[in-house]
Amino acid sequence: MSAITTSEALRALYGEPQELAVTKEMRRLDSHARRFLEKSPFVLIGSSAPGRLPDVSPKGDRPGFTLVLSDDRIAIPDWPGNNRLDTLENVIANPAVGLLFLLPGMGETLRINGQAEIRTDRDILDRMAVRGKAPISALVVATDEVYFHCAKAFMRSKLWDPETRIDRETMPTLGAMLKDQAGLEGDLGEIDRALEQGCRATLY
């Protein structure tokens, strides 16, 4: 097994980036990035902090749930969850985050990298309210890098192809997996029902 341990060795293997891969990078949102955010219902947030493993957490809601505050600031609502707070704890220690926004059925993605802070400003939270309820906080990200990513990963994986969708019955339920992993006791059916009810009851 050969490990690549230097940037020089890495570049020798892959070469330099294509010119467009560099020149497409923007510092601020343009009209295309704004439109993508208006339609996107899902984002993956990458964060890290000293002494902790890196984390990638999913966030999703109705299309356009990410609020554009300006050409260089966006806000992502944080709704009730399991209170692990992996992303938020990381941001307190290290504000640098990487965001990957997706559109169902579209192979291209929008990447935004920048500096995040946790905000509880009422004027921001109220603008993201759902069913009359505002999020607990918002992750406000100041953009440093904004660019579109090509569709190769989606083409290779056929992620949006209906024929590649798995039969959910081929995988255990979340309750079954947690029962094995966390040693949960009790009837599996009751565990599954409790998990589903808990999700529905704390969506907002």
From TrEMBL:
List the PANTHER family hit by this protein, alphabetically: FAD-BINDING, PUTATIVE (AFU_ORTHOLOGUE AFUA_6G07600)-RELATED
Q: Which InterPro entries match?
A: Pyridox_Oxase_FMN-dep, Pyridox_Oxase_N, Split_barrel_FMN-bd
The protein's name: Pyridoxamine 5'-phosphate oxidase family protein
* Organism of this sequence: Jiella mangrovi
Domain (Pyridoxamine 5'-phosphate oxidase N-terminal): residue spans on this chain: 30-150
